Amino acid sequence: MEHDPFLTLTVSQRIRSNTNIRILLTRNLIKMKNNNSRKKTNNSDKTRNVLESKLTNEWIKIGMRMPDPKPLYRTIWHQGEVGILFANTGKGKSILAMQLADSISRERTVSNVYIPAQKVVYCDFELSTKAFQRRYSTAEDSYCFSDMFIRAEIDRNQSLEDKNLTFEELVMSSVKENVNLHQADVLIIDNITYLSATNEKSHEAMALMKLILDLARGKNISILLIAHTPKRDIYSPIQLEDLAGSKALSNFVDFCFCIGESTQGDNVRYIKQLKNRNYPIEYGAENVINCELVKEDSFLHFNCTGYGSEKDHLQSQDDDDKKQKLEELVQAGKTNKVIGKFFDVDERTIRRWRKKWDIS
Q1: What is the DSSP string of 99-147?
Q2: Which pLDDT does position 6 carry in this prediction?
Q3: Domain containing 136: what range?
Q4: Residue range 33-53: average pLDDT?
Q5: For the chain, which has fewer Cβ within 10 Å, the N-terminal or C-terminal residue?
């Protein structure tokens, strides 16, 4: 008969041995449960579906039950939309943006449609407190804004360094905090360079716009981003390409419009639509909004003087100027297509000019 060492153990030794076996079995069972749990979690992650699908006609019925977005600025900007306003430095972007914010923060009637006042948060990264005060006041009086209008600027008394966040991430986090704090309906950011130092690359623009769109959709708010453009001449019409470093951003927004300078006077401007995803473009090249900058009752603003063609605001070129500019563009390596957009003509015309003036 084979000797069983277990039979030679004392009672206390047997108890300790049984206890150790139970502990080992318990540990093994826990490990098995954890492994199964992880497998289930991994499987659930693989099969997770973030898309909601319905019959196409059902989506239309759902949409019909939703209220139509009300206009915020003419037919250019509507509730729930995200867009960009751009222009050269010193041409009135901040002035127009502040004017829009002031209007939106007050109740009004547009095309016989009543629009209630909305809470607006304006993140001003351009003007200092003193510069803002001087712009909207005189020696005798100051403009009275609505209590529904909140202006925010960088608090220079706080440290702008954070070991866990970049400066841009810190600013974006603060923007979200102000939206929540004031329960904003509309957000205006002046200007977008404070949210992202570089927007030239598509993946960088996509990352920034994901944050902006998540904020807009998650909070159901309307957002206007202000952008700079490089110095441009006044010979050619404004194109989306003039948005330059922020051009990639225009792919993700609902609308885009701009302010153009005019040869008709230092205080004359025009407003032009360049993109609208949800509505027809009303103020294109042949129907721009003619404006002049005026200050009335301590309020600096754009005063609409009518409508007209963008060409009326551009400087005409004689053949010598045209030839010189064409040579510069060709030497810079621009294609006939790009050059054609500059002169507002087709490629065939550019080929004809190059042949006529022997520019190769």
Answers
A1: HHHHHHTS-EEETTEEE----EEEEESS--HHHHHHHTB-SS-B----T
A2: 42
A3: 71-313
A4: 70
A5: N
